[in-house]
Q: What sequence folds into this?
């Protein structure tokens, strides 16, 4: 009896969170529908919208597969082959996470000004986002018991067939989860695409915002974007599959035998070296180069103030997102049903929308219904939680998958109550994942641009805002210090993520 | 799967603690403790919504505070979106003063009946024709449309006589502009007022077809400088600023003034207004009076922004041609219609 009332409480909490995240969508859809059918059709059925759709689709069609291939291949090389200096490569391949995508774009624009449009957009987004696939796949490969693969081999499968039959199915959730993150990021990406002068729905929405604040046309575009997001989420449910990836008890597991690369060693090193060079060395070296010409008076004071407010926002946002994600993730792990999947997916929707859309919706809501919240820290943090919930969710789900219900049930059968089970069994198992989720969200908040612009209290300045201000004025030197601090702040967080992979044993 | 979770948790603790302590340390470092108040509007401070350039607004705000002791706080934004934002905030807008880059954004707020009449003494401080007859706002600065050209790619006598000529097929792919920005949209509002809807529509369609689109004026100028396109439409002051500095973005370029009352000689007014809903109306009026005063206008000139001063009897930077020499088109800046411009630009698939 107690168990069911408890899970009802969790369900209520998860529903509340889902409702909160859907709220901006409701505002957007209501606003869009205020345009009237005829006007909406007039606005949406025209060459410009077709062009935006084609551009968005093209970018997704290239970047998502590219990140999946690069991320998975790199993860396999690092975790499962006799690649020299695997530990170093692991760190280097995660390091691009510390370079915000728009900083990478800024670097590429100054290094190769001719590289604009689709080519630049696809290159920079691929380089910036492949770690989203690398991270979960590497973590999973490390924790995977090699016994299955060995059994498959002993039953006569070739090495390749054994990998395809035993390893790949297990990787499916990690790969599709990573690909989902990449796809959602692409849908909402603004900074990179604006710098690369490649127009998608999100840049068009920003343009609409610039001319009309929150008029119906912007909401119409946002509604189309919402449709695209729904499509992506549906595809991911299909790609993920319904297989359970946890098992009871770790057994006695030993590290997998690493495949010998032989003649492939050199090509593998060249590939990883190129990847790291393009994704990490180019941005960091460029920022450092500009930094040299940016040192001036008053800079340090300004930088400290801006950094302090950025860090505070990042921590609050991370905390809010993790707390909000916990009920949904738990529910999904324990009671997977059509309803819980729907609840989880609904929290993904708002995050695929650009920050400006969620920001505008919250501005409208606050002005009309919650005036005291307008331009407050609380509303800003709420926006972060809504925007970045999936990051926390993905991490928490991975953790909960490693804490199967049977363990909690065993603990309860041994006489521990719900809270004690949570503290003594579940939390230790999912603790690392909670931290991962927290870190992922904080990273995202520290580089968030448009929602911050709209919602933050007057007088708030963040690294991303300052960086964007200087970059828009094409003052690359003045932008460099903010870019440098964003990178430096992200380094400890990235190291933390690296530990996460290492501890997956 | 995860063995020894307790051990790994203990390992992680110092790291987490360090991470959590980071903001505290940073806050402590930030010298004057300002960041404690960084997340709240300062009570008693004049709230200035500004889409003007940051350095200009700050120069005015700081000089004003120094002179009057009235604290100010600036919220930055972009012209059109900020104007609409104030309308959406309505009567309860936190803003006391609104400063724009171009007047159409102010007109948006004026039409929503949210502006208080500007003090007559303030209106009397600016040049004739620089404040609307409604008396609800006043110009605080001005900027001129120009054609920037790459001197290595095109000679002076090959330049078009009128901005309208750029729509001709011979100019296809030869010119750049930043149609997404408020500056350009103000120029279009001027063209619309001067040449009417048909001509403006045709010109915008040519723009969508023939021009290279850049993010903003500076990007346009740098593209012309780098030889991506021979000519570009922009405002004058970005060029003068770059020339006064290291010329990195303009060394290969010159400016062409259309003059002759051409739509390409449009002069855009930066506007200042006081919100009717302001809870500090006297201070807000004081601020506007200061900005338009000879002293405040001198702050603008000295800020190096290279925008035109609009105060009666105040000289703009000597590097600039005078406002009278610009021979701007006879457009009433107070009836500029940005809504129709948006529609035309949407129809032309630019937005």
A:
């Amino acid at each position: 009896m107690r168990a069911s009332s408890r899970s009802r409480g969790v369900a209520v909490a998860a529903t509340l969170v889902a409702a909160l995240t859907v709220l901006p969508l409701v505002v957007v859809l209501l606003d869009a529908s205020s345009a009237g059918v005829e006007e909406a059709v007039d606005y949406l059925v025209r060459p410009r919208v077709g062009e935006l759709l084609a551009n968005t689709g093209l970018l997704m069609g290239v970047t998502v597969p590219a990140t999946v291939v690069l991320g998975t291949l790199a993860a396999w090389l690092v975790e499962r082959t006799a690649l020299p200096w695997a530990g170093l490569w692991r760190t280097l391949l995660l390091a691009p996470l510390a370079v915000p995508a728009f900083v990478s774009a800024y670097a590429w624009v100054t290094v190769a000004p001719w590289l604009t449009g689709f080519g630049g957009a696809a290159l920079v987004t691929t380089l910036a986002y492949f770690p989203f696939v690398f991270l979960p796949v590497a973590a999973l490969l490390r924790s995977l018991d090699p016994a299955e693969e060995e059994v498959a081999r002993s039953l006569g499968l070739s090495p390749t067939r054994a990998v395809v039959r035993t390893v790949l199915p297990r990787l499916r959730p990690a790969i599709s989860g990573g690909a989902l993150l990449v796809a959602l990021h692409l849908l909402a990406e603004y900074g990179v695409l604006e710098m690369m002068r490649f127009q998608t729905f999100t840049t068009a929405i920003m343009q609409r915002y610039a001319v009309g604040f929150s008029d119906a046309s912007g909401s119409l575009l946002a509604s189309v974007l919402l449709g695209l997001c729904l499509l992506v989420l549906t595809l991911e449910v299909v790609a993920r599959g319904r297989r359970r990836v946890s098992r009871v008890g770790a057994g006695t597991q030993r590290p997998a035998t690493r495949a010998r690369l032989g003649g492939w060693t050199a090509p593998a090193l060249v590939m990883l070296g190129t990847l790291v060079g393009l994704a990490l060395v180019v941005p960091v070296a460029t920022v450092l180069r500009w930094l040299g010409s940016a040192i001036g008076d008053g800079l340090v004071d300004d930088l400290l103030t801006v950094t302090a407010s950025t860090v505070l926002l990042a921590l609050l946002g991370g905390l809010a997102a993790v707390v909000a994600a916990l009920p949904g993730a738990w529910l999904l792990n324990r009671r997977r049903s059509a309803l819980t999947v729907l609840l989880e997916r609904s929290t993904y929707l708002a995050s695929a929308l650009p920050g400006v859309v969620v920001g505008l919706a919250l501005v409208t809501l606050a002005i009309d219904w919650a005036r005291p919240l307008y331009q407050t820290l609380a509303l800003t943090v709420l926006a972060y939680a809504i925007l970045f919930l999936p990051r926390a969710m993905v991490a928490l789900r991975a953790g909960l998958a490693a804490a199967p219900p049977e363990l909690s049930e065993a603990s309860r059968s041994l006489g521990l109550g719900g809270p004690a089970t949570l503290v003594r069994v579940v939390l230790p198992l999912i603790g690392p994942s909670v931290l991962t989720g927290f870190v992922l969200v904080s990273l995202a908040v520290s580089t968030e641009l448009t929602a911050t612009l709209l919602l933050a209290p007057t007088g708030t300045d963040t690294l991303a805002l300052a960086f964007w201000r200087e970059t828009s004025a094409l003052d690359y030197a003045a932008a460099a210090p903010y870019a440098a601090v964003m990178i430096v702040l992200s380094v400890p967080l990235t190291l933390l993520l690296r530990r996460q992979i290492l501890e997956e044993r | 799967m995860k063995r020894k979770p307790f051990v790994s948790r203990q390992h992680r603790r110092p790291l987490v603690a360090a991470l959590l302590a980071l903001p505290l340390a940073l806050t402590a470092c930030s010298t004057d403790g300002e960041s404690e108040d960084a997340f709240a509007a300062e009570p008693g401070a004049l709230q200035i919504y500004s889409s003007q350039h940051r350095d200009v607004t700050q120069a005015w705000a700081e000089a004003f505070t120094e002179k009057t002791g009235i604290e100010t706080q600036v919220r930055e934004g972009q012209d059109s979106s900020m104007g609409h934002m104030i309308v959406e905030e309505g009567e309860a807008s936190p803003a006391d003063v609104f400063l724009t880059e171009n007047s159409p954004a102010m007109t948006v707020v004026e039409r929503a009946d949210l502006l208080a009449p500007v003090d007559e003494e303030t209106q009397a401080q600016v040049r004739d024709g620089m404040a609307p007859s409604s008396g609800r706002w006043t110009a605080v600065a001005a900027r001129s449309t120009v054609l920037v050209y790459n001197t290595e790619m095109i000679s002076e006598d090959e330049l078009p006589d009128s901005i309208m000529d750029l729509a001709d097929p011979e100019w296809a792919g030869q010119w750049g502009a930043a149609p997404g920005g408020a500056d350009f949209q103000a120029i279009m509002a001027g063209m619309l007022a001067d040449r009417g809807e048909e001509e403006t529509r045709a010109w915008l369609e040519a723009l969508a077809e023939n021009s290279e689109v850049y993010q903003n004026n500076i990007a346009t100028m740098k593209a012309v400088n780098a030889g991506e396109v021979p000519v570009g439409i922009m405002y004058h002051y970005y060029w003068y600023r770059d020339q006064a500095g290291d010329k990195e973005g303009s060394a290969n370029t010159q400016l062409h003034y259309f003059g002759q009352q051409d739509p390409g000689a449009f002069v855009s007014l930066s506007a200042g207004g006081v919100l009717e809903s302001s809870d500090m109306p006297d201070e807000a009026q004081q601020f506007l009076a200061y900005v338009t005063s000879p002293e405040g206008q001198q702050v603008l000139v000295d800020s190096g922004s290279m925008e035109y001063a609009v105060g009666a009897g105040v000289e703009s930077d000597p590097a600039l041609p005078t406002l009278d020499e610009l021979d701007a088109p006879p457009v009433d800046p107070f009836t500029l219609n940005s809504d129709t411009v948006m529609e035309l630009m949407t129809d032309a698939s630019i937005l």
